[in-house]
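Lay summary. Proteins are chains of building blocks that fold into shapes, and those shapes determine what they do. In this project we predict the shape from the chain. Here is one chain we studied, written as its sequence of building blocks.
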Amino acid sequence: MDESDFEGTEVLEQVAAIGKLDDFFEAIDSDDFSRAVSLMKKARVDSETIAIVVKKMQEADGKH
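And here is the predicted shape, written in a compact code that computers can read:
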């Protein structure tokens, strides 16, 4: 997957499947990169997608 193909819904569905969606949004909102990555790994999100999410978090830095 490359960034132009990125669909965040898939990430959210995978995180929701482990019951951690609220925790994930909290991590995103507080720029807690390590927590967001940890939750995505637990949800079995692939490493390429995790890297895209982290990049988007960095780019958004306070602009959400």
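What the prediction tells us: The CA atoms of residues 28 and 57 lie 7 Å apart.
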